[in-house]
Amino acid sequence: MAAMKKKQLKELNDDDLKARLNELRLELSKGRAQIAVGGSPENTGRIRQTRKTIARILTEMKRRL
């Protein structure tokens, strides 16, 4: 999943944001587990990108309250 820009996040409704957040958290946990086991992830920058996208989603959700 590619990184999402703020403009893209603003276009999504609340349910889509929650679904995307769950997907990204699952992806992040898989990436961290892969590193913990001792393997190297396919794309090392992917974990950082995922964390930043999660933060953007959470920020957008709090902004809407």
Description of the molecule:
- There is one protein chain.
- By secondary structure, this protein is mostly helical.
- It has one domain: Helix Hairpins.
- It is 75% helix and 0% strand.
- Helix 2 runs antiparallel to helix 3 (46-64).
Topology at a glance:
Layout: H1 6-11, H2 14-37, H3 46-64
Helix pairs in contact: 2-3
At the first level of CATH, what is the class?
Mainly Alpha
Radius of gyration: 13 Å
Averaged pLDDT: 91
Tally the helices: what do you get? Answer: 3
**Domain unit count:** 1
CATH architecture: Orthogonal Bundle
Helix % is over 70%
| Biggest beta sheet summary | none
Q: Which structural class do the helices and strands define?
A: mainly alpha
CATH topology: Helix Hairpins
Beta strands, count: 0
- Give start-end ranges of low-pLDDT stretches: none
Helix-strand topology string: HHH
Q: Based on CA inertia axes, which overall geometry fits?
A: elongated
Quick synopsis:
The chain has 65 residues and is mainly α. 75% of the residues lie in helices and 0% in strands. It has three helices and no strands.
